[in-house]
Design goal:
There is one protein chain. With about 280 residues, the chain is an alpha+beta fold. The chain folds into two domains: about 1-85 and about 105-185, no CATH class; about 190-284, no CATH class. It has helices at about 20-35, 110-115, 165-175, 175-180, 200, 205-220, 230-240, 270-275; strands at about 45, 45-55, 75-85, 90, 100, 125, 130-135, 145, 160-165, 195, 250-255. The strands form four sheets. The protein has a four-stranded antiparallel sheet. The chain has a three-stranded antiparallel sheet with strand order 2-3-9.
Length: about 280
């Protein structure tokens, strides 16, 4: 089974190589084995993890104390995303545009379909809602789901790595080809924020709607009241308001460009239509 990961090598920026691409899959497999030891190990779970490491920093205007945190100016960091199942990582760039950094491990995913058809084509089916399933499962990779391991369900994660951080510094240190290859959208830094969320969010909202809800509430309440936690709570509240009935979990992580995005709501009309179209069951 393939693990997707970029081996980042930068011409003008040296940093200590790590073995994340080995340790993270082993950690996921260890978690899977821990599921096996539980009394009730027939169910499964998913996971999306984000690891942010500052790999370069320059003294800023924080004297006499300067902490090279990944969200500070004059820092360059490496972002590693590991993913199993249908939770999701969404990164919002400095223009306010949302980028999916993970893809659901569903039977409809062409990579997953090709992988699992090596085991059998008879296990693919469509449920009464028109959603493709692998046997009885919506996810083709997960922790647990012990009864389906022999049929190809695995906890081995997809891995992807990116460079994030201060745009001015990135443009000084990275070549044009490196920026295109390693930064999100090829924009070269000043990313606004990262969202980690469950399918209870993404089943109801597009990635851009999630991003816009965060930005709109920050713009309305302003700093410091509009913390990442408050904005994440607003995403969950919106999902609940429009009738979401699955577990809705959302985590917002501020990055270097937090609060610096343009005042623009790309999905405001769509969200308004969702609110107007939803009728609570008790009022039908």
């Amino acid at each position: 089974m393939e693990t997707i990961a970029n081996e980042i090598k930068l011409k003008n920026l040296e940093f200590q190589a790590d073995d994340f691409n080995t340790r993270i899959p082993l950690t996921y497999l260890k978690t899977d084995y821990d599921f096996f030891e539980q009394d009730d190990n027939s169910s499964g779970s998913t996971c999306t993890s984000a690891f942010i490491e500052t790999i370069y920093s320059e003294p800023g205007s924080f004297a006499p104390v300067f902490e090279p945190y990944y969200f500070n100016r004059k820092t360059i960091s490496k972002l590693t995303i590991s993913h199993v199942g249908d939770t999701k990582a969404i990164l919002v760039d400095r223009t306010g545009e949302a980028h999916a950094l993970s893809q659901p491990h569903h039977p409809s995913n062409p990579i997953e379909a090709a992988r699992l058809r090596r085991f059998s084509t008879n296990f693919f089916m469509t449920d009464s809602f028109g959603e493709e399933r692998f046997i009885a499962l919506a996810n083709t990779r997960s922790f647990g789901d012990v009864n389906y391991k022999q049929m190809g369900v695995t906890s081995e994660p997809d891995l992807s790595q990116f460079i994030i951080g201060d745009a001015e510094l990135i443009q000084q240190k990275l070549t044009a080809d490196e920026m295109k290859k390693y930064t999100i959208g090829g924009l070269g830094g000043d990313e606004a924020f990262l969202v980690l969320c469950s399918d209870g969010i993404t089943n109801e909202l597009t990635d851009q709607e999630v991003a816009d809800i965060v930005m709109v509430h920050f713009n309305m309440k302003g700093h410091p009241r509009a913390t990442p936690q408050l904005c994440a709570e607003e995403v969950v509240k919106f999902v609940e308001y429009v009738g979401g009935d699955d577990n809705a979990t959302c985590l917002v992580i501020r990055l270097n460009g937090w609060g610096k995005w343009p005042i623009l709501d790309r999905t405001g009309e769509l969200r308004q239509e969702r609110m107007e179209a939803y009728t609570p069951r008790g009022e039908r």
